[in-house]
Amino acid sequence: MTPVRHIHSRTVLLPHENIDTDRIIPARFLTTTTRVGLGRHAFRDWRYRSDGTPDPEFVLNRPEAIGAGILVAGRNFGCGSSREHAPWALLDAGFRAVISSEIADIFRSNALKNGLVAITVAAPEHRFLLRHPGIELRIDVAAGEITLPDGGRFGFSLDAFARHCLVEGIDQLGFLLRHDAIIQNYEEQFA
């Protein structure tokens, strides 16, 4: 996993509430165990018409969405079933962070474990972001701060272990492997 210390990008808005994991990545695309290529199926049933052509009205198909790495979503983002493919699809689609006033616990856990920074902000800050589409944000993962273009800041919290893993660019297994010598030494004491 690549370390995630800072993210600097424009936002794209998907202000709908209760976007579940089946909306993020429909179940019919869960047949793979690889992350590559899932981005083209992110929000598939919203992004494409029945004939397979992109729907120009969907926000991610608009020119202003190109290159945006921060998704600002409506309340209760990522609810529904647990599927690790949902953060995989968002990462493969180019997103590095998701910001909402409420993110489902299982989705948030899966996102953070896979390098997608899932951030909850207070309702006033969320409303501000929703009123300012395409705003440039700087996210400092270690400091837990989002900086606005005018220098204003929003704070956010992350679980300390998740923050450590993001900043170091390791997953849970990588964390354990970094402590392999200590673990072996402990096991040898009781062997």
| Rg result | 18 Å
Mean pLDDT: 94
Kindly give the count of domains: 1
Provide the CATH superfamily.
Answer: Aconitase, domain 4
Helix content: 25-40%
Provide the CATH architecture. Alpha-Beta Barrel
Question: How many helical stretches?
Answer: 8
Number of strands: 7
- CA distance, first residue to last residue: 34 Å
**Low-pLDDT residue spans:** none
Strand order of the largest sheet: 4-3-2-1-5-6-7
What's the structural blueprint in terms of helices and strands?
Elements: E1 6-14, H1 21-24, H2 44-47, E2 70-73, H3 85-92, E3 97-100, H4 105-113, E4 117-120, H5 123-131, E5 136-140, E6 145-147, E7 153-155, H6 160-168, H7 172-178, H8 180-189
Parallel strand pairs: 1-2, 2-3, 3-4
Antiparallel strand pairs: 1-5, 5-6, 6-7
Describe the overall structure.
Helix content is 31%, strand content 17%. It has helices spanning 21-24, 44-47, 85-92, 105-113, 123-131, 160-168, 172-178, 180-189, and strands at 6-14, 70-73, 97-100, 117-120, 136-140, 145-147, 153-155. By secondary structure, the chain is α/β, with parallel strands linked by helices. The protein is globular and about 65 Å long. It has one domain: Alpha-Beta Barrel (Aconitase, domain 4). 30% of the residues are buried. The protein has a seven-stranded mixed β-sheet with strand order 4-3-2-1-5-6-7. The longest helix has 10 residues, at 180-189. The chain starts with 5 loop residues before the first strand and ends with a helix.
